[in-house]
Amino acid sequence: PHGHGDVHYLLLKAGLIDRWLNQGKSHVIFFQDNNPLYLDAVPAALGVSIANNWACNFLTVPRRAKEAAGAITLLTHTSGQTMTCNVEYNQLDPLLRANGQTEGDTNLEDGFSPFPGNMNEAIFELNSYSETLHATGGHITKFINPKYTDSSRTKFKSPCRLECMMQD
């Protein structure tokens, strides 16, 4: 399989999003079973999402710089357009350095990175989510995420594969 990003295509193909909208549901919550402790935060996060009329909300945790966890970031294009999204841990430091932050991903005075850790838990408002799914056909961009044995980047730790992510 490509990865958990295929869930969007499958939900669209099965007609579940339209069914949920017709049933009057307003939000969908995506979660992974690798960290059940976050479940206590979901009702509050859903309430905040509704109160602020957010199309998307990510649950995050404090993250130390260069920690092997994706980071939720606010990216700004040269046109001024912004996007809040996950940036994978192995891409964050190079992205920051390539865009003028010579120190890269560093901790603040509190000992944590300014980029919180992605817990792979997301809340989507169904109308916005449905519009996006129908516009994209539910397809998520695939990528190859090589894992190297060391910083020489000459030997793979494991075979590379095509992936896509739920939070993308």
Describe this structure in words.
With 168 residues, this protein is α+β, with helices and mostly antiparallel strands. It is built from 5 helices and 7 strands; from the N terminus they run ααβαβββαβαββ. It has helices at 6-14, 16-22, 42-51, 89-98, 126-136; strands spanning 27-30, 56-61, 71-76, 82-87, 117-125, 143-144, 162-163. A 3-stranded antiparallel sheet has the order 1-5-2. It has a two-stranded antiparallel ribbon with strand order 3-4. Strands 6-7 form a two-stranded antiparallel sheet. Strand 3 and strand 4 (82-87) form a beta hairpin. Helix 2 (16-22) packs antiparallel against helix 5 (126-136). It is globular, with a radius of gyration of 17 Å. It starts with 5 loop residues before the first helix and ends in a 5-residue tail after the last strand. The relative contact order is 0.24. The model has no long low-confidence stretch (mean pLDDT 86).
